[in-house]
Known about the structure:
By secondary structure, the protein is an alpha+beta fold. The protein contains 1 helix and 2 strands, in the order βαβ. It has one helix spanning 18-27, and strands at 8-13, 39-45. Strands 1-2 form a two-stranded antiparallel sheet. The longest helix has 10 residues, at 18-27. It starts with 7 loop residues before the first strand and ends in a 24-residue tail after the last strand.
Amino acid sequence: MTGTAHQWAAAVHVPITTEQARAAASTQQMTIDTTTSVTMDGIYCTACRGRYGHPHTGPSCPVEIGGRH
């Protein structure tokens, strides 16, 4: 995603097995099925790390100039 908008991502907690952890540790990726439930930890901009809906108090985001996310 590029342009003038922030690059939003969701931080989530995904329950995994020991085998999945071992595989993910070596590949740094994994696939989950549609029945896996995840817990949302937060939403943030991957470019500036600003949290969604919170005033931006740090340096300007590389992909958006403005005071709010």
